[in-house]
Amino acid sequence: MTIFFFAIKRALRDKFTLAILTLFPILLLLAPPFWGEETTMGFSMFGMVIMFVAFILVRTIMTDRVSGTVTRIFAAPVSTLKYLSQNLLAYLVIIMAQILLVLTIGSQIYGWGLELYLMLVVCYTVFAGASIGFSLAWNSVFKSKELSDAIFSIVISLMGILGGVFVPLELLPDLIRKMGMIFPIYWFSNAISIITYHGDFRSFWLSIGIMLMFIIAFLLYGSKRRIE
Asked: Deepest in the core among 8, 96, 135, 138, taking most CB within 10 A?
């Protein structure tokens, strides 16, 4: 598990990553209008934070690729599967720690019950996996970090609009909703909406299942691309 522990230390050494992991979501928690009974904005915005964190963490794999570090790593008896699995597991552990920290503090501030807390943990954890898988697939497409970063900022904003982060899904036109369904963030927003408004829990688990399928598809695509 050498790569796993190194990936965690490497991520936590970066001050910008630490700020997004801790400072941003805590500042978001301290904005009560986002967490009222009539809105899911705070929960959805935290999902966007998770997507940014996943992208920044997974970007280190691209950094290794473009800097030639990964070539030196593979000179040792390290397989691609071992390199990717330990890095991705480390990123998931870091994001899960962030999720538990935010939900625990949020529960103390806004009085969320145990059932809501546990369902949010499930929803955010699966979405974190989808975000990591998406970031891996995304970075595997580009050879330039600068180009990848620039386009990702635009794409994630578009995904947020189509996925119901900024406007509740039920207020979006049908065409926009159908377009949003091709992104995991739509199903994340749908699950969050069901949790907070006590909707049909079969739809909640359907959204979770679809996000799991996104994880498999993204990981298969991202890991099959050459990273040397």
From this structure: 135
The predicted structure's pLDDT at residue 89: 95
Is a pLDDT exceeding 60 seen at residue 153? yes
Instruction: State both tokens at 113.
Output: 């019950």
- Element (DSSP H or E) covering residue 30: none
Cα–chain-centroid distance for residue 181?
Answer: 17
* pTM, two decimal places: 0.89
HEC per residue, the chain:
CHHHHHHHHHHHHCHHHHHHHHHHHHHHHCCHHHHCCCCCHHHHHHHHHHHHHHHHHHHHHHHHHHHCHHHHHHHCCCCHHHHHHHHHHHHHHHHHHHHHHHHHHHHHHHCCCHHHHHHHHHHHHHHHHHHHHHHHHHHHHCCCHHHHHHHHHHHHHHHHHHCCCCCCHHHCCHHHHHHHCCCHHHHHHHHHHHHHHCCCHHHHHHHHHHHHHHHHHHHHHHHHCCCC
Mind listing the pLDDT tens digit for each residue in 49-91? 999 999 999 988 888 877 777 777 777 777 888 888 999 999 9
- Helices first, then strands: H and E counts in the chain: 11, 0
CA distances from 160 to 69, 86, 89, 165, 223 (A): 34, 29, 25, 5, 25
pLDDT for 209 beyond 90 = yes
Its sign, for the CA torsion 47, 53, 56, 58, is negative
pLDDT at 75: 74
